[in-house]
Specification:
Elements: E1 2-5, H1 7-14, H2 21-34, E2 37-41, H3 42-56, H4 58-69, E3 74-77, H5 81-93, H6 99-111, E4 115-117, H7 122-125, E5 129-130
Helix pairs in contact: 1-2, 1-3, 3-4, 5-6
């Protein structure tokens, strides 16, 4: 079983001062024990590394990049042109939805995923289950 990994969870794991840090660590441990796989798309990689670099510095961003490169339970999905067309359509028609979130929700739908490791309530509002500690 795979769980979608969102930027909010990645940031919480990277920043020990984040309000969700301890909960995020507990969720990771539970997911490891379950043998769950994690997946993201390339925009999550870019958004997460950018956010960590902006808030925590380049060294922390490099560590996160290494996490993406050296993690055997993490699959990174790359978005093709047809995927992007649908993402742009969703973004245009749902004013509260950001581009990265639109891509995330669409990928989850296409992969048949029901669970997200995220602290963004938008996933729950879209009908997906949020991981809990």
């Amino acid at each position: 079983m795979s769980v979608f990994l969102d930027t909010s969870a990645l940031y919480a794991l990277a920043d020990a001062k984040d309000a969700h840090h301890a909960e995020a660590r507990r969720i990771v441990e539970r997911l490891k024990a379950e043998g769950a796989g994690l997946c993201v798309h390339e925009w999550i990689v870019l958004e997460s590394v950018w956010l960590v670099q902006k808030r925590l510095g380049r060294e922390a961003a490099v560590r996160l990049g290494l996490f993406f490169q050296n993690n055997p339970i993490l699959k990174i999905h790359f978005l093709d042109a047809s995927f992007l067309e649908e993402v742009f359509s969703r973004y245009e028609n749902r004013h509260a939805l950001g581009m990265v979130d639109a891509a995330s929700l669409l990928l989850m739908e296409r992969l048949g995923l029901s669970r997200a490791f995220s602290f963004d309530r938008g996933f729950a509002a879209a009908g997906f289950s949020l991981e809990k500690a």
